[in-house]
């Protein structure tokens, strides 16, 4: 037989059991072949069990039963179920009696909840329609229909739904080209189409991929020259799409939102990045207003991101990023400003005051004051401006500025 | 003509040795017989050829012909020298160089020169002392010193006790010779002769191993198994066994091997040949005696059966091969089998009975009042009369001549509630049964069992499709209710006593009626797809469950397990009623008879047993030599069971007791599967047996004579489950290739009866009768069931994608690495 137990391992065992004396060659070779044969027979027997259980793989239990069939005591504790073998099986030996037991550890509830420990699931049965009148319905439970004759026609249908007609392809091409061309008039026209055409649904998936890919490429650090203008155009497209009431965007959010957020929170400073961030903030807020539900927790997730950036130190996120986060938060709603931004203003004031870059400092101050004032005004309806409270809330840096702004607005 | 044909075949056979033997044939026959026809023709001519050989080589003509009784081994080698001598003759005639590479050839050459000597040249001449030895031999031979030659040889062999390589030479030559002989046959009958190659090969290999020439044996094995021509034809249907044979490497192993036992000692290898082929073979093997080794094996282990007429076609023969001991004796399948259905237990009959009852009741009403007594007697009379009428009408309806007598196997009367249940089913469901046609394909509801991979062993569903039983590896049986009915238990004994037994609702009353509010509370809380809220657990076995069977009325559940026992569970009290002990090895399958009461089981202890739920002892034991029984199936008339065993032969057993002391023999045997059979089913009319298994073939057998009807092909992996629709016209099979296929069984049988079935090929590719394929997502269907209204239900355990497998393999790899490390350390130690 080609596969055999190595003579060495037999030698090793006999040596160990025989107080260091090795058997001579012949019995060792005999033993090796004998053992190989025994193993072969056992495997053959365990195959019977595998076959009976209608499986394709052998598990250790099958081998254990084969051992039992040959009146050999099975080895305990080697089941495939036990994932970590170290804590699986213990042997207690007392008065020449051996007891095996499973080491049943106490698992903390927290661990099982956070799925650090794999909890074996119980059986469950699910019923579904595999076929109705000879047709397999297209559901999650059924596999993707293959090449059997009956399903061919269906397949063609499915494909044709995904394929674009020639006209649509041309439409898509023209549209995207217009959207990023430098001709202001044409662009306006294209954006108008994006925001109003209800036949867009066919090409919308492509348009969205166009946007998200465009953002990805133009934001990448390898892009050599400044392309903020293209980003700007792309965001305008986003904005227009979001305004369109007739198309269904929900299934593409996972493309759209990351693109917008990366424009908003971009680290690098390009030429016209403030306006880009403003626009992205607006888009983001609009999207969240439109699509956020309790189920997808879109708003909460966005707030989490922005808040984390805003309260972190300057080393981690640059000021432009924090500016973006601030805009993003502020654009969402007054409620967000009041609940989340107001407590932060004092702290922000201290930080902004320390900014050495004059342009940056000015921009930050300007935008913070702008949003805070509006929100503050909506809360404090009565005209009497409580100066003391203002100082208390917003700190020394911002309070006078806001106060002045309030007066200006009046 | 012959010359040219053989010379064309010889290049085609890639074997070097077969080449030489081919040319050998030429040399032998061309001088004596000038045409090819010499094969088929008469003995005298052939005898002359025999004489020709003898005269040409001039060696012991007497012993080679009559010496079968003498030491065969010696004999074989002797004639072997004869033939090798001829080879060398021929080769020397053609090329003189071929001789020189083989040192063995000169030895035979010398023999030719010294033809008076009886020598057995059996030394491998790779060693130097051997050459010396040869020189001495030659000198001795030159001087005609026979005795000293013998003694020298003995001495030599005791000194250099090495295996003599040429011991395998006769084996090689004989088999090559036979293969070449087969190649020479015309296409139309070649396959007939090819049947012998596989068993010859196995016997030769075993012989070689038993003579302790392991290396030779392995060389022998590899030479032929690697031969692509043989692989495709002869060995294709015996792959499983070939692997097993290869693993036998010593005498003891052969003595112990169950496989050899069932191959060698269980009977003779059965081969069916047509008359002409048999005659030819007879000439080749017996009359010519060219390879006495072949003759000896054929005489000892083979049984040749002549079937009249011309040779069967190759495809049929290929389909029927695959059994461990060849094909089935035709004689074995000639006993009468009563495969018809029992009329009195037939549904129509019950229904008629019911209609009679109804009409008589109606009559009563018309009669109006009157005391009860006479009216019932009248009723009875009327019933009796109707019964007679009915019997007559039945007779006119043509009684099935193949049906067994009702009393052949005593079957208990149906209980009243069962009868009612049957009638109800008939009225409610059978009348609304969906007729499945190619235009109206069945809908399929699929139940996927999740998280159960490697844990769930078997599934069983009740006849009315309401209860699902799941047998687990953890020796627990789970019972689920598939409709939303509660699985209630029976009331306690003291409550039962209070019940009025004459009440017709007594069967409902005896069950505990859980509070309705409770039910109502439960229902809305459950999702519609959740079936699990209603589960019962049956504990008792101490090993994995391998088989389950539910009785028709849903009162009993049978389970068989690795712990060698069968348990009967009550589904009313949810307890174990009896443990049937008797099997000595794990029990692999158990099934209730169609009318309950009886059940059969089969086991790894190589027996199938018949039991009855009222006795703890076995009623019948059906033993099957050396083969494990793996699956079984009851005949719908409860008179027979079919089993499949490890030798891949299906057997049908008669449950009627045979003569005392005589071993029960199967009434039908069917060979044809190439790998193990997983599932068997009788057709609804009891006439056909359908079997399927690991070899992907779905084979349909005619019970009346055990012949193959057809073989359906289409699945790309093992078939594990099947069911027939309630009207018996549709067959559905489920496989590991994640698909279910639906076949038009009714059409097939109709075509067969009309004689339209392609009997030449006997193999039916998917397109002809397959209606549709349903595919599942990573679930291999292990149970298929048609509901009473012909809705198709599929059940399967979801197989998770390969994650777990990879972890286990990595673990195994780690273990292997550890082992390797251990060996290296030991090496270091040494």
- Largest beta-sheet details of chain A: 2 strands, antiparallel
Described by the principal axes of the CA atoms, the overall outline of chain B is elongated
Rg of chain B, Cα atoms, Å: 34 Å
Mean pLDDT of chain A: 78
**Percentage beta strand of chain A:** under 5%
Give the strand content of chain B: 15-25%
Summarize the biggest pleated sheet of chain B: 5 strands, mixed
| Backbone shape of chain A | elongated
- Oligomeric grouping of the chains: heterodimer
The CATH class designation of the largest domain in chain A is Mainly Alpha
* Unreliable segments of 5+ consecutive residues of chain B: 1-126, 361-397, 515-531, 804-830
Low-confidence residue ranges of chain A: 82-86, 146-160
CATH homologous superfamily (4th level) name of the largest domain in chain A:
TAF6, C-terminal HEAT repeat domain
Please, could you describe this protein's structure?
The complex is a heterodimer of chains A (410) and B (830). Chain A contains 17 helices and 3 strands. By secondary structure, chain A is mainly alpha-helical. Chain A has 3 domains: 7-110, Histone, subunit A; 157-332, TAF6, C-terminal HEAT repeat domain (Serine Threonine Protein Phosphatase 5, Tetratricopeptide repeat); 334-409, no CATH class. In chain A, helix 11 (273-291) packs parallel to helix 13 and helix 16 (358-379) packs across helix 17. Chain A is elongated, with a radius of gyration of 35 Å. Chain A starts with 6 loop residues before the first helix and ends with a helix. Mean pLDDT of chain A is 78; it is low at 82-86 and 146-160. Chain B has 830 residues and is of the alpha+beta class. Chain B has 28 helices and 30 strands. In chain B, the strands form 8 sheets. A 5-stranded mixed β-sheet of chain B has the order 20-21-22-23-27. A 4-stranded antiparallel β-sheet of chain B has the order 4-5-6-7, with no helix packed on it. In chain B, strands 8-9-10-11 form a 4-stranded antiparallel β-sheet, with no helix packed on it. In chain B, 39% of the residues are buried. The interface between A and B is large, with 51 and 73 residues.
